[in-house]
Write a structure and sequence with these properties.
It is a single chain. The protein has a single domain (3-165), classed as Rossmann fold. 44% of the residues lie in helices and 13% in strands. It has helices spanning 15-29, 54-63, 79-82, 91-100, 112-115, 120-123, 140-165, and strands at 3-9, 36-42, 85-88, 108-111. The protein has a four-stranded parallel beta sheet. Helix 1 packs across helix 7 and helix 2 (54-63) crosses helix 7 (140-165). Bound molecules: 4-nitrophenyl phosphate. The site of 4-nitrophenyl phosphate (4NP) has 10 residues, from loops.
Length: 167
């Protein structure tokens, strides 16, 4: 059985597809694609079927990976049957997921950066520590900030999963 990881944000066009692409990149580099399944979803449905935001695609390409093939989808209750890790980008998404979570869910649901065991000083100088701030209404600096947090979190998450599952 593959270990399965779902990244979740609001629109599924900025943060979570960036995390899906970047985490998949590190999984592939580690030759673990047969052991770890990666996906992403949104708590909102406005962007279902859409490619990632062009600004998110650009910062990803600048880092050396392509997320243009990904398409937005909404998180669904069946995801709780399929995914071992359900990782929210911020408190708002986590609140939504906690309300949706079936009582018998035994996976790891929480903030991505918290479950990835990031150190507080890695995350932010403001009070949004452990959250990846929504860059959608921001500028390119907000997208750069988001990808930096996601990059660091992805490396930590992979190390944690490898250790926990003996991979
Ligand atoms: P994301 O960013 O949650 O990182 O994909 C957003 C994308 C779209 C919207 C909000 C956030 N929106 O309101 O349409």
């Amino acid at each position: 059985m593959k270990i399965s990881v779902l990244f979740i944000c609001l629109g599924n066009i900025c943060r979570s597809p960036t995390a899906q692409g970047l985490f998949q990149y590190y999984v592939d580099q580690a030759n673990l694609a047969d052991s770890i399944l990666v996906d992403s979803a949104g708590t909102g449905s406005w962007h279902e079927g859409e490619a990632p935001d062009s600004r998110a695609q650009l910062v990803a390409l600048n880092k050396g990976y392509d997320i243009s093939h990904l398409r937005g989808r909404s998180v669904e209750s069946n995801d709780f049957l399929s995914f071992d890790y359900m990782l929210a980008m911020d408190d708002q998404n986590l609140y939504f997921l906690e309300n949706m979570k079936p009582d018998n869910y035994h996976g790891d649901l929480g903030l991505f950066l918290k479950i990835a065991n990031n150190r507080v000083e890695d995350c932010s100088t403001d009070n949004k520590i452990m959250q990846v701030p929504d860059p959608f209404y921001g500028d390119s600096a907000h997208f750069e900030k988001a990808i930096a947090l996601i990059d660091h979190g992805s490396k930590n998450l992979l190390a944690k999963i490898r250790e926990k599952h003996d991979l």
